[in-house]
Design goal:
- The structure holds 2 protein chains of 2 kinds.
- By secondary structure, chain A is of the alpha/beta class.
- Chain A contains 15 helices and 12 strands.
- In chain A, helix 3 links the parallel strand 1 and strand 2.
- Chain A is globular.
- Chain B is an all-alpha fold.
- Chain B has a single domain, classed as MetI-like (MetI-like fold), CATH 1.10.3720.10.
- In chain B, 73% of the residues lie in helices and 0% in strands.
- Chain B is globular and about 70 Å long.
- The interface between A and B is medium-sized, with 35 and 31 residues.
Chain lengths: 350, 306
């Protein structure tokens, strides 16, 4: 029987720590043999479950490779890739549009082509152009108006929503400067709806200033649901998928309309990280595959990108067709948002 | 003869090394060397990030919206723009108000805990600490549910006929202060309670025997002797309030703008890391200045120097 001394523990621990620290350390024998283990990202909660159970499952079944899922947010993932560009810890990045554009322009992501991702052939061109070819739209939400059934005459358009809020017909829930999508879903959206543009957002700021006395502001994505339920607000600028998910969870009082101007497109972008494993292309193929996408649509109530995808009757009524949404000029809103947020802080202070 | 001289030199050098390392005579306890892991930990996880943050704030690397014009551009903006100066002052005033209210609310609780709770001492300590075991977000949401337009408080007031229209409790700075006091007051109570426990009760009894009223005894004996605990609580609560942003994100409807909120914005939305780094450095330095001032004031009033 060998003697179990402090020195033995240190030796064994040291070897273990070295193994864990080595590149490719602590990987399964199968993965080492095939060398095809990739790392993909997912937002938390229902997203993570969907990525694991639908997308990773499809990828592993088709290729025999393995994919590990990294949970977190795009800011964190981008920082991880930026700090190790030559040997990135992530192979497929799920990104927000503003950061996806930065990733493409700063050489963090590779351009997608049909010869590498065959399902790309079935994706409408705007979903590739939206990120200048350095990725593809995987899923999208439309930011329209959610409201409580107690509002008997809800607004049909953003313009009417602004007018009604100023007139005190209802209390509005608006995103504040702490929410990442505010530059697009509120500032650009209202500017566009009220006669302005990405280069002239004065109409939006004037409208928000006037709406402020009859509005509550929110930061967290779930806040408007609580604000509508507790009566803090009656009508909210909100996204279709989450509205319907809330409805399905028992909140049958909630309603959603796509305003006449069109809800604002908010995409989730899939990107192949530069210098990441080439096995990642097949994972993106899974992301764009109509079968798994149909499953995702059922689970998330969001629109997806493959044009061959057939939605169920229930989803057809719910999901806003992308043609009926408005695409903000993301490349411009991305550069302008620093100025807009500063203006918000000084003028709106909410 | 040379060999006779050399050997004593080694013990001298050894003694000096031991002194430097705080080892004392050979074979004695080795206090300083055991501190090294903690020092290394602080150097890696506290000092190095601070240095990195300073470097980041001075960096000329640009983001999506362009590069800064000079290394000190972010500081010039923060310290030269009345808007940002106002935010800095608001941050400090807000923290001071929260700390002061926590003191006023927490002292009686600490006093009751130490002097009056008797066999319920453990239970009260548990009740005091229990909220710290739940998420700050959950506690803050609790305020929102209670104070919403159709929430518990407004419903009661309307049912009693006290108000006709719901009061908008959630949009003012008051609810943000209340929410943060709720989160931080246990720190103040525990700090003061530990100080109260250390007071020799005979001092208070002597004062009363000599004719001092209970009020006078409290203000001239008890309170000065707990200034140490008050100082600790003040520092803890002030620093925590100074850096808090979750409560302000969820309560107050954006009526209070503080530096932590703006730092959060710079990281999550505008990705202006230069400005965010500069903001956090300015916040840290201003908080340290406040801390030194507070300690000086408290020491002048009787806190024992260590």
């Amino acid at each position: 029987m060998s003697k179990f001394t402090r020195r033995t523990i240190l030796k064994v621990g040291g070897i273990g720590a070295l193994a864990a620290g080595m590149p490719g350390g602590l990987v399964s024998p199968r993965a080492l043999a095939e060398g095809q283990r990739i790392t993909v990202t997912a937002f938390g909660g229902i997203w993570e479950k969907m990525i694991r159970e639908v997308m990773v499952a499809d990828y592993e079944k088709r290729t025999g490779n393995e994919a590990s899922v990294l949970i977190g947010g795009p800011q964190q993932w981008m920082a991880q890739i930026e700090s190790n560009r030559e040997n990135p810890p992530i192979d497929v990045l799920m990104n927000t549009i503003d950061l996806a554009l930065i990733a493409g322009r700063t050489g963090l992501a590779e351009p997608l082509t049909v010869d590498k991702v065959s399902n790309l052939a079935d994706v409408p061109q705007p979903f590739i152009d939206i990120v200048e070819g350095y990725g593809v739209l995987f899923t999208y939400g439309a930011w329209g108006l959610a409201y409580h059934e107690r509002v008997k005459n809800p607004p049909k358009s953003f313009a009417e929503f602004v007018e009604g809020t100023i007139a005190g017909k209802w209390r509005a829930a608006l995103p504040n400067a702490g929410y990442t999508g505010t530059p697009q879903i509120l500032i650009w959206s209202l500017a566009d709806a009220l006669g302005g543009s990405v280069d002239n957002v004065d109409p939006a700021f004037e409208a928000i200033q006037k709406m402020k006395p009859n509005s509550v502001f929110w930061t967290g994505i779930s806040d408007p649901l609580i604000q509508l339920e507790t009566g803090e607000a009656d009508v909210a600028i909100y996204v279709d998928g989450r509205t319907w998910a809330h409805y399905d969870s028992g909140a049958t009082w909630i309603r959603y309309i796509n305003p006449e101007e069109g809800g604002v497109m908010q995409p989730a972008i899939a990107q192949k990280v530069k210098n990441g494993s080439d096995a990642a292309w097949e994972y993106i193929n899974s992301l764009l595959s109509p079968g798994p996408q149909a499953e995702v649509a059922e689970r998330l109530n969001y629109g997806l990108s493959n044009s061959k995808l057939q939605y169920s009757d229930k989803l057809k009524e719910r999901i806003t067709p992308w043609e009926k949404t408005r695409f903000p000029p993301f490349e411009k809103t991305g550069t302008a948002q620093r100025e807009w947020i500063e203006r918000w802080n000084r003028e709106i202070r909410a | 003869m040379k060999a006779d001289v050399e050997p004593p030199a080694c013990p001298k050098r050894g003694a000096r090394l031991r002194r430097v390392l705080g080892l004392g005579p050979a074979g004695a306890a080795v206090p300083l060397i055991w501190v090294l892991p903690a020092v290394a930990f602080m150097a890696i996880f506290f000092v190095a990030p601070l240095v990195d943050n300073v470097a980041r704030s001075l960096s000329l690397a640009g983001g999506f919206s362009g590069a800064p014009t000079s290394a000190l551009a972010a500081y010039a903006k923060l310290l030269g723009d009345p808007y940002y100066l106002e935010v800095l002052v608001t941050t400090l005033v807000f923290s001071l108000v929260v700390t002061a209210i926590s003191l006023v609310a927490g002292y009686p609780v600490a006093y009751f805990l130490v002097r009056k709770s008797g066999r319920y001492y453990s239970l009260i300590v548990f009740l005091l600490v229990a909220p710290l075991l739940t998420s700050i977000i959950m506690r803050t949401f609790g305020w929102r549910v209670l104070l919403a337009r159709r929430g518990f408080v407004n419903s009661i007031l309307m049912d009693l006929g006290i108000i006709d229209v719901p009061i908008n409790f959630l949009s003012g700075p008051g609810v943000a202060v209340a929410g943060l006091v709720h989160v931080l007051v246990p720190f103040m109570v525990l700090a003061i309670a530990s100080s109260l426990q250390g007071i020799d009760r005979q001092l208070e009894e002597s004062a009363q025997i000599l004719g001092a009223s209970r009020m006078r005894t409290f203000f001239h004996i008890t309170l000065p002797l707990t200034l140490d605990g008050i100082g600790t609580g003040f520092i803890l609560v002030f620093m925590l309030a100074n850096g808090s942003f979750v409560t302000l994100l969820l309560l107050g409807g954006g009526s209070i703008q503080t530096l932590p909120l703006l730092i959060y914005q710079q990281f999550t939305i505008t990705r202006d890391f230069n400005l965010a780094g500069a903001m956090s450095n300015v916040l840290l330095i201003s908080a340290l200045i406040c801390l030194v001032l507070q300690l000086r004031i408290l020491k002048r009033r009787g806190v024992k120097g260590k």
